[in-house]
Amino acid sequence: MVTHPPLLSLDGVTKTFPNGTVALAGVDLDLRAGRVHGLLGANGAGKSTLIKILSGALPASGGAIRWHGEAVRWTRPRHPREAGVATIYQHIPLVPTLSALENILLDERGTWRNRTADRERIGAIVSTLGHPFDLNTPVAQLPIGARQMVAIAQALAGGAELVVMDEPTASLAGDERQTVYRTIRRLAYDEGKAILFVSHFLDEIMALTDEVTVLRDGRAVLHAETDTLDEARIAEAIAGRAVAAIARPDQARSLGEPRLEVQDLRSPGKLSPVSFTLHTGEVLGIAGVLGSGRSELMHAVFGSDPDARGQVLLDGETVGRYPDEAVAAGLALVPEDRAEQGYVPQFSLAENIALARVSQRGGAFIDAASERADAKAAIDRLSIKAPGGDALVTELSGGNAQKVVVAKWLTDDTRVLLLDEPTAGIDIGARTDILKLVRALADGGLPVMLVSSEFEELLAICDRILVMRDGRMIGQADPYATSETDLTLMTGGTTDVAAAGANA
Ligand SMILES: Nc1ncnc2c1ncn2[C@@H]1O[C@H](COP(=O)(O)OP(=O)(O)OP(=O)(O)O)[C@@H](O)[C@H]1O
């Protein structure tokens, strides 16, 4: 194999935040043309900080960055962009009302435009991606996988030689992930781009990358060619300890008493009528791809969808159809969109955790000592990486902020736990801890509804799985008789649920 000199190298790069947190403690990293480099690390390991430095959003505190062998100091986003570095974030900042073409050209606004030439140039770039989409369609109407392609085309239109991708597949379903992988391979191997690919998914790192760097506590603790590694070795480097995957139990657990009765719950245009019962000690999984109605179902149960109609009863009592009534009744929802719905950024970790308790007790006062004790318990229980309960949520890494949202609802007043993608963006070690915790809470009697795009997780801890497609519940799968592939086929619409051996 011919090794190119690095396109970009980091040499002892450090970053210390004003509050004293050392996010990067001296990182070396070489990125080369024609190679896909995977970057992994636990929540808070320093991945986002590194990406922000590469994209000019944050200055490094020390160390050297070389681009084509020349030392550079990038202090503004336009510096790396103009040099040839494009960064694609998990939450794709596209303008939904503009067409794909207009989005791709957004960075070039203000320059002289020749529509036909633009269209031809962008059309040529899009054809290199191997996943055609209509340039005139407003982005809001494109499937999510195609939107990711728009973001990639936007990066390439700016002439990027290095494409940095921050968890680009986090919210994508199986087929859409495959599409992104194919495109990344084309970019690296046919177009000679360097790719830095950040992910929490070990299987995709193994399948997609040529080499891997693992960060832990701001240091690169492992760097190796991917084909010399296996998932267990990477997981151990991430967590700093051996991580055992959660094993599926051999036989079904018996279900307890019926607790939550959902009757004829529906929401026009989002959810067709659905009825089911959740039992004591049951983890009820909801499997479905993005847009299948899985989150809509959770919001309808919780009362946070004002258009939803139907009945929800807990222990025979009707639960009011507004979130505050649901909370007062003991329902707790950890929503998928945590940044918008899950926490108050201006509040400390302890204050955010206390919020749930206050609302569950109808606004009752919580004294400072219990607030501190609750925060400490949550930090320990979910291994939240934070200087302490006083830290602002905005000072935590993305995954640790998510853990705060999960933690805040784990109270004695929670009688039914609704979890929408609780492990999205959470590292392998903590992911296993959260799943074990959910299972243990259920084994202690708590009924849980769990939405997860990771079918492996559903199969590992659920007692039953409801399958959703196009806003409808299309059947029920038995985790003991269903494989991940079966669930992928059912949720993707390729297989009839009954045909896959599940009970409708
Ligand atoms: N603005 C900030 N002020 C203070 N500390 C910060 C700030 N942003 C991040 N940190 C801290 O820097 C460390 C690295 O965080 P970073 O966001 O880079 O982690 P990460 O690897 O991207 O994690 P995740 O997988 O959770 O996104 C963490 O300890 C975090 O709390």
TrEMBL record:
PANTHER family: CARBOHYDRATE TRANSPORT ATP-BINDING PROTEIN MG119-RELATED, D-ALLOSE IMPORT ATP-BINDING PROTEIN ALSA-RELATED
Organism: Stakelama flava
SMART domains associated with the record: AAA
Domain ABC transporter, residue spans: 8-242, 246-495
InterPro entries: AAA+_ATPase (IPR003593), ABC_carbohydrate_import_ATPase (IPR050107), ABC_transporter-like_ATP-bd (IPR003439), ABC_transporter-like_CS (IPR017871)
Keywords: ATP-binding, Cell membrane, Membrane, Nucleotide-binding, Repeat, Sugar transport, Translocase, Transport
Protein name: Sugar ABC transporter ATP-binding protein
GO molecular function: ATP binding
Pfam families on file: ABC_tran
Annotated signal peptide: none
